[in-house]
Specification:
Length: about 190
């Protein structure tokens, strides 16, 4: 895992993913001193995902897509894009849950909980279940934030169900892709 972190970038996509990671770190540090604590907390939740995608050795393109998607999801909350653009919430839930389900597949494969992905159907089921579970967990976090932290968080039944459907669909797409293509680099270090 640490060997993947130490591996130097090998192509433009690697450099771009590392640039997004660096920007995410700087933005989170700056937000600690310049934004309300809730915005800092939302942004900081993106850091584990942007670092984990490199640590587990995702393919360059998937690594970049994961970093951008997760950071855009967090940033969209801070700058209120979810309220400003109708439907943006569903697009982000679809994309973000999809990439996180792909990350989960790699972690489950490395822990030998599931067989290696690629050319199998099991990733479709596992990714979809994982995505629905992640969606449910996120919706619980939203509810908790609304109930105990601030009523500025938008929580309704329709929004919650729509978000979970979008997340499940994104995870299903990730599972289909994982059943056909390798998610990780061929030269990566395993956990």
């Amino acid at each position: 895992m640490y060997a993947n972190l130490q591996r130097p970038p090998r192509n433009v996509t690697d450099w771009l993913a590392d640039l997004v990671r660096a920007v995410a770190i700087v933005v989170v540090i700056v937000s600690l001193f310049t934004l309300p604590f809730t915005d800092f907390a939302v942004l900081s939740m993106s850091l584990p995902a942007v670092m984990l995608s490199r640590m587990i050795g995702l393919r360059s393109g998937l690594d970049l897509v994961t970093c951008v998607t997760v950071f855009v999801a967090a940033g969209s909350n801070v700058i209120d894009l979810y309220c400003a653009w109708t439907g943006w919430d569903l697009v982000v839930h679809l994309a973000c849950t999809g990439v996180l389900a792909a990350v989960a597949l790699v972690l489950l494969e490395d822990a030998r909980v599931i067989a290696p992905t690629g050319r199998r159907r099991i990733p479709i089921v596992i990714a979809t279940i994982t995505g629905l579970a992640l969606s449910a967990a996120w919706e619980m976090v939203e509810w908790f934030g609304y109930r105990f932290i601030t009523d500025a968080i938008f929580v309704t039944y329709d929004d919650t169900i729509g978000d979970m459907i979008a997340g499940g669909a994104g995870a299903l797409v990730a599972g289909v892709l994982a059943s056909r293509f390798r998610l990780t680099r061929t030269d990566r270090a395993r956990l």
